[in-house]
Amino acid sequence: MDGHLLTTRQMASFVADGYLRFDALVPDGLNHRASDEMGRLREERFTGDGLRPPATGTPLEACYPPPSVIGEYLRLPGVQGIIRSLLGPDPTFDHDWTHHIPAGTAEGQHLHTDAIADSDDPTFDIQLFWFPHEVRPGEGGTRFVPGSHLHRVQPSALDRYQHIAGEEQFAGPAGTVLVFHHGLWHAGQPNPGPDDRWMHKVRLNPTQPQVLQWDTADLAELHNDPSDHVFARMQPDSVAHTFRAWHPWHGVTTYRNEQVQRARLWRYLTDDDTYDVDHYLTRLEGRARLVGR
Amino acid sequence: MTPRQQVLYLWANGSALDSTVVAWAFHDGTDGNVPGLPEVPDGRPPYDTGVDALRDGWRLLQSAQLIAQQTGQEHRNAYLDYEFVFERLVDC
Q1: Residues in contact with A259: Cβ distance below 8 Å, sequence separation at least 6, in sequence order
Q2: Three-state secondary structure readout of chain A
Q3: Cβ of B77 and A157 within 8 Å?
Q4: Interface of B with A in 32-61 (CB under 8 A)
C-alpha cells in the first residue's frame, strides 16, 4: 500500500475542495464484472439468502470476502492507499448502495447531503463512488458542489438550490472513483442517454485519529508557516496556497470563513495547533490570550 | 387568459441587489407555455445580478434579512446567505 498513499498536495486539495477524483483507477477486468454483482446486491440486499451487504461497523478488511468483485475493488492497492491516507488504519464499513439509473430516466434528485447535520469536530467519513463504465456528459453522472463539504446544513434544506455556479456533474472513463468528504453536497441526475448508469457508493468510518496517515514526504516542503498571509508574505507553493482556492459560488465572507474551516481541519490532520492561513485563527487566538481565554 | 405566476430565486455573493448571482432556481406556473429564463451558456446564471432581473420584468418579492450569527458560530458557513425572490405574472 505504501506506494499508493496520497501526497500532501492531494490531501490539501481534498481539504479545500471536499473531493478527489481518480480516473480509470479500477482495471477493466473488474469493471466488466461489476454490473452483475452490483445488480445482485441491488436485488438481493434485503433477502434472507441472497447477496447482502456487510453489517454496519464491520472492519473494512472483513467486508465482501472472496469471491466478490466489490471486495476485489475495495482491496485494490490504489483504493486501499486512498482509504488509509484519509481514514487511517482499521476503518469500518458504514453502509453501501448500488445506484442504478436506467437509460432514459428523466428525473433527478434534489441537491442534498447524506445522513444528518454534522458535529462540530473536524473528523470525517469518506464516501467512494465507483463508476464501472464510461459516463458520458449529461448521462447520469453525479452532480456535486466543490467546496461545500464544510458547510453545516440540514440534508434536505438544499433542495431549493437548482443550480450553483461552479458545480460539476461527473463524466469520465470506466473505473473512475470519486472520493467525497461526507459533507459534500451532491445529487443523482437524469440519464437521458441510451445506456444504464451503474455506480457503487460506500461510506466508511475512521476508528483512529486521521493524523498524518498519508505519504508525508512532501509535508515539510508544503506545510506553510502560520505567518503565511496573502497581504504580507506568502510561500508561493504551499498548503495555504491550495487553501486559497476560491470557488465561484463563494462570496467574500464565505470564502474567508472557509479558509478558517480548512485551517482547522488541517490542524487536526497534521496535529499542528498553530497552523493557519492568512492569520485568521492566529489573530483571534492572540487577542483571546490578552483576556486569559 | 389566466394569469400564472413564475418564481425566480437568485442567490448573490453579497447583500446588494446588484451583487453577482452565484445560484438560481426557477419555478414556472405556466408549465412552459410562455418564455421562461433567457438563454445563456451552461453553468451561467440567467442574470448576472438581481438588478438585471428587474430590467427583464421580474418583480422583487423578498430580500434576505441580515441576521447576526450566534457567538461561536461566526466562522461557520451554512446556507447561501443572500437570497432574493422574484415573481412575474404572465397570461397563458
Answers
A1: A243, A244, A277, A278, A280
A2: CHHHCCCHHHHHHHHHHCEEEECCCCCHHHHHHHHHHHHHHHHHCCCCCCCCCCCCCCEHHHCCCCCCHHHHHHCCHHHHHHHHHHHCCCCEEEEEEEEEECCCECCCCCCECCCCCCCCCCCCCEEEEEECCCECCCCCCCEECCCCCCCCCCHHHHCCCCEECCCEECCECCCEEEEEECCCCEECCCECCCCCEEEEEEEEECCCCCCCCCCHHHHHHHCCCCCCCCCCCCCCCCHHHHHCCCCCCCCHHHHHHHHHHHHHHHHHHHCCCCCCCCCHHHHHHHHHHHCCC
A3: no
A4: 43-45
**pLDDT computed for residue A250 by the predictor:** 97
Which tens digits make up the pLDDT trace of B6-52? Answer: 999 999 999 999 999 999 999 999 988 888 899 999 889 999 999 99
Residue A18 grid cell: 471536499
The domain limits of chain B are: 3-91
Report, as ranges of residue numbers, the positions in chain A whose pLDDT lies below 70: none
Delimit the CATH 2.60.120.620 region(s) of chain A: 2-205
How many CA atoms does the CB half-sphere of A279 hold within 13 Å?
A: 11
* pLDDT tens string A131-179: 999 999 999 999 999 999 999 999 999 999 999 999 999 999 999 999 9
Model pLDDT for residues B55-74, shown as the tens digit of each residue? 999 999 999 999 998 998 99
Nearest to A152 among B14, B78, B81 (CB): B78
| Residue listed under C-alpha cell 482499521 | A90
Residue of B nearest to A257 (CA): B75
Residue B26, number of CB atoms within 10 A of its CB: 15
pLDDT at A49: 83
Task: At A228, list the grid cell.
Answer: 503565511
B88, β-bridge pairs: B6
Taking CA atoms, what residue in B is nearest to A247?
A: B22
CATH architecture entry for A2-205 = Sandwich (2.60)
A212 touching chain B per CB within 8 A: no
Taking CA A154 as the corner, what is the angle to CA A251 and CA B64, rounded to the nearest 5 degrees? 45
